[in-house]
Amino acid sequence: MFLTTTISDLIQIKPEEFEKSSIQAIKDAIHAKYANKVIQEVGLCICLRDILKSSEGLIGHGTGIVNVNVEFRLVVFRPFKGEIIEGKISGSDQECIKIALEFFDDIFVPGPVNLFEGVKYVGAERVWVWVTEQGDELFFDLEETVRFRVEAEIWTDQSPQAPTTDDTPVERKSPYRIIASMAQAGLGPTLWWEEGEAEE
């Protein structure tokens, strides 16, 4: 679920940061630039792991900003296909169930294709329901802790787009989305399977 990636970048230290030690100022600048940001085809940056090397700082003309070439490693979130993860249901509509982690909330489970056979969407309650072979109704309730399986990832380029001529608003999509499934034994709300184990 978490990986380490190596990055080389030009890091800028502003004059108001000069009171800090050089290493702390560099760490803070890297954190401000990368933390909670998505790097295309790499993942969601969580935190700085360590600094491998850095150059001597060069002061920019007329700005007082110090430019430092730094090579460092970041911890990133990018689960592999088939990985089982726990999260909480953050919303549901007739197209999918949305799941959130503490630090990431763009996880989607398309319904009914990626859910158990026999599921249905109850629009009045805005919830998906699994009707078992025995006729029991099991609900995918909001805020329920669930286990899901990673099936695919979708990357969206966030580069600036040319303005349109017809004033049509441009839809902004998340730069990184995960498509998941809950269609196997042990997946879905953890409460279902805990109750089953207790009965046994």
Description:
With 200 residues, the protein is mainly beta. It has two domains: 2-77, 2-Layer Sandwich (Dna Ligase, domain 1); 83-159 and 173-192, Beta Barrel (OB fold (Dihydrolipoamide Acetyltransferase, E2P)). Helices cover 12% and strands 45% of the residues. Strands 1, 2, 3, 4 and 5 form a five-stranded antiparallel β-sheet that branches. A five-stranded mixed β-barrel has the order 6-7-8-13-12. The chain has a three-stranded antiparallel β-sheet with strand order 9-10-11, with no helix packed on it. The mean pLDDT is 91.
Let me know the average pLDDT. Answer: 91
Structural class: mainly beta
Low-confidence stretches: none
Level-1 CATH class name of the largest domain: Mainly Beta
How many strands appear in the DSSP assignment?
Answer: 14
Order of helices and strands: EHEEEEEEEEEEEEEH
DSSP helix fraction = 10-25%
CATH-scheme architecture of the largest domain: Beta Barrel
CATH topology description of the largest domain: OB fold (Dihydrolipoamide Acetyltransferase, E2P)
Summarize the structure.
Belongs to the eukaryotic RPB7/RPC8 RNA polymerase subunit family. DNA-dependent RNA polymerase which catalyzes the transcription of DNA into RNA using the four ribonucleoside triphosphates as substrates. The protein is built from 2 helices and 14 strands, in the order βαβββββββββββββα.
